Predict the structure of Helix-turn-helix domain-containing protein.
Amino acid sequence: MIPDSPMTDAFLSGLDHAKTGALIRRLRLEQKLTQAELAQKLHISHKTVSKWERGLGAPDVSLLPALSQALAVGIETLLSGELSPNDETGGTMKHSLFAVCPVCGNLLWSTGKADLSCCGRKLEPLTAKEEEGEHRLLLEQVEDEWYLTLEHPMEKGHHISFLACLSGDSITLVKLFPEGTCAARFPKRRHVQLFWYCTEHGLFQKRV
């Protein structure tokens, strides 16, 4: 989020210009842009970009949205002056996160901590709850597959929108729709984690 005026100047003056400048240069090179090409995208002088990268100033707050888009990072990352790799998770399946956009219903999934956004909104990862009531998963083995069903409404405003099966090295996800069948088949594996999302009551989980 961009700080509101009149505190904008004070906020930007508190930035570590050297760190921010070094990050802008790194991201510019990753995007294979020259200083002149980046400046053209922002409708500014290439000397201004050079000034940023040498730590002699910071971008004006009005340029942050366009700069964020040009360098393919969030505004918060630009202001912090550093990228945050997920060293502690290594992107493994057991650290998987789900998020659902409240505007369009789009499902986002990550194998570790990540900045997730959709429709201009930053999304917080869903917290999975244990199954209960009509959200209790019915699990049946059919040959070499798990057959999953729920006795749950499948109405437009209240339905299960997806079922997912996570194992140590893979994820299988089935998208569900209103008026459809609340069921899915997954390859039978040991030590899997099952997730399903109710549009009204949130994310649920079960370990097998």
Summary: The chain has two domains: 8-80, 93-207.
